[in-house]
Design brief:
single chain, alpha/beta, disordered N terminus
Length: 200
Amino acid sequence: MKPRTAVDTEQPEELLFFRRWIANPLKVGALLPSSPALARVVARNVEMGPDDVVIEVGAGTGSITKGLLASGAIPPERLFVIEIDTDMCTYLRKQLPHVQVIHGDAGRLADIVPSRWHGKVSTVVSGIPMITLPFDAQQRLIRSWFSIMKPGGKMLQYTYSLVSPIPEDKLDLRGRRCGMAFLNVPPASVFAYRKAAEPA
């Protein structure tokens, strides 16, 4: 018999997601995993050069991760997934054995992502519910992400808000909504952000 603290990696994705939502709704942010429709919108907006890596933060059960891989544009070994929840992390490692899954704080990317990739991150994909976070928490996360991006790198944020979930001006960013997934439950928007000082 499995110990009660062990995560069952064979349980349905929706059940695991719901259990983690019950445990911490502000961190998980939604009742259901993201849909394939949303994953496709995110994947279309990822930038990936031959020497680049992509980082996904707040991956949950990996719905978006699977969509990124299905796009064929990102080799699994060039995709880093950062997840702070222990159960989710165990599940991701079981489901996506070829992806670089890191258990850790997304606000400490410079410490937890191997240094050889610093300056080679083209895109950070965020599933963290930024709209629920106070400004100082948003600022800590975003500074961490841009600190290891290559020049011109961008952040993709998917959200259930119709407006930008972060105050762009205060964070010295410029952003735009680059897509919507109407078939997601609930419908979701994807916003792309870059440093305001960098060219479009």
